[in-house]
Write a structure and sequence with these properties.
Helices cover about 35% and strands about 10% of the residues. The chain has about 450 residues and is an alpha/beta fold. It has a domain of about 220 residues: TIM Barrel (Alpha-Beta Barrel).
Length: about 450
């Protein structure tokens, strides 16, 4: 009875350690003050990550395993493991997207962030260290090929050139994950985790009654190899991305997230991908619900897990993996393989190494978010990114001594939201075109004009 009481006491202490961490402290596992921590191999940082993950996965019940297969992964209090949110965005700076579950919040000390990859990774870690993040996995960059200007998400991408897009992917991933510009510095540790998306041949939202959920891209093997795959290959082989997102659409009849040749044979086998593969949000459910590719939900679960997908952005795996196992469509070994990839990333992020303040990126504080260095970097990037297409009569640059008044017309002239694009957080110190001109020319007449 005494041993039982002691066990219950230790278990209750573990629950308290998970649930009562101060709100300004980032969530982490393997707290050195937890009496159970010393007995867990998965907390021993001297062991290789694969052995630590094997130990952790072996301790989980089937229900606990299934709870980790979705983007909002549940806490496992008995092991001192807090909940984890896999979904965060950072395309145009550490982002906050309203009305979705996400790993980043701007409701504490930090209320804004800078853009551009090098700064994004540092500031994302700073947000986490400040206790305003439940996840360090960012689903960015978007490296789809922008072939058709009618695609509404084209502004997220670098453009239509596979070579340029590939080079962009490599630099973006290295910058955000904390690697050097040339690569090779990072090793096993991750500042944050980048995720190249949407894998692959994805560039349609809605056209003539065909939407992105049911679109079947008929792509020749040559076009796939020459156009759509090179950015992802560069992202993985040179950028060493730790995440990949499979897209909604099908390619030549097969859903991307259920394509073994794409996920396992190509990404992992040929390109040596060492990370996790997530679905786009609800991409697993549409395989059955909208594409009609399979006969029942459990078949969709079986197809994506055996194809090599690890994480479901949604709840389909949570709802149907158990019944898929009962129907012998899925083996527990498929789940264990997915969990190995998922927990490996969390360990590479240092989230199972004890107090984050004592880890390699623990010295990144809130003072490095919106720092002057990062603001200068953003300004330099903006200047270098501007292309002047036309300058009749050499009107630009404006002669400050000669221009006494200006008319500024158009809704975007006074909109900071338009400047930052989508998947962006609150900018540090936004200056609209109107505000910039007002600081340059004294007499400004502004009219929003047409807003639609």
């Amino acid at each position: 009875m005494k041993l039982l009481n002691l066990s219950l006491l230790i278990h209750l202490c573990s629950l308290l350690l998970v649930s009562t961490q101060p709100t300004d402290q980032p969530p982490f596992s393997c707290d050195s003050t937890d009496p159970l921590t010393k007995s867990y191999k998965f907390c021993k940082t001297t062991l290789p990550i694969n052995r630590r993950v094997e130990d952790l996965v072996s301790r989980l019940t089937l229900d606990e395993k299934i709870s980790q297969l979705i983007n909002t992964a549940a806490a496992i209090p008995r092991l001192g493991i807090p909940g984890y949110e896999w979904w965060s965005e950072a395309l145009h700076g550490v982002a906050f997207v309203a009305n979705i579950s996400q790993g980043i919040r701007f409701n504490g000390t930090i209320r804004s962030a800078t853009s551009f990859p090098q700064a994004i990774g540092i500031e994302a870690r700073g947000v986490y260290n400040a206790g305003q993040a439940r996840g360090m996995t960012f689903w960015t960059p978007n490296i789809n090929i922008f072939r058709d200007p009618r695609w509404g998400r084209g502004q997220e991408t670098p453009g239509e050139d596979p070579l340029v897009t590939g080079k962009y992917a490599v630099s973006f991933v290295r910058g955000i994950q904390g690697d050097s510009f040339e690569g090779g510095k990072l090793g096993e540790s991750l500042q944050v985790s980048a995720c190249c998306k949407h894998f692959t041949a994805y560039d349609l939202d809605n056209w003539k009654g065909i939407n992105r959920f049911v679109f079947d891209a008929n792509v020749t093997l040559q076009d796939l190899a020459d156009t759509y795959q090179p950015p992802f290959q560069s992202c993985i082989e040179k950028g060493k991305a730790s995440g990949v997102m499979c897209a909604y659409n099908r390619i030549n009849g097969v859903p991307n997230c259920a394509d073994y040749n794409l996920l396992s044979k190509t990404a992992r086998g040929q390109w040596g991908f060492n990370g996790y593969i997530t679905s786009d949000c609800d991409a697993v459910s549409i395989i059955y619900d909208e594409q009609g590719y399979v006969k029942e939900p459990e078949d969709a679960v079986a197809d994506v897990l055996t194809a090599g997908m690890d994480l479901d952005c949604g709840e389909y795996l949570k709802n149907y993996t158990g019944s898929a196992i009962e129907k012998k469509k899925v083996a527990v070994s498929d789940i264990d393989r997915a969990l190995h990839n998922l927990f490996s990333i969390r360990m590479r992020l240092g989230l199972f190494n004890g107090n984050p303040a004592k880890q390699p990126f623990g010295n990144i504080g809130s003072d490095q978010v919106c720092s002057q260095e990062h603001l200068n970097l953003a300004l330099e990037a903006a200047r270098n990114g501007i292309v002047l297409l036309k300058n009749d009569n050499r009107l630009l640059p404006l002669a400050k001594t000669e221009i006494t008044s200006l008319a500024v017309i158009g809704p975007n002239a006074n909109s900071s939201e338009t400047l930052v694009g989508n998947y962006a957080g609150p900018p540090c110190n936004p200056v609209t075109p109107l505000q910039g001109l007002q600081s340059y020319v004294k007499n400004i007449n502004y009219h929003p004009g047409c807003s639609t």
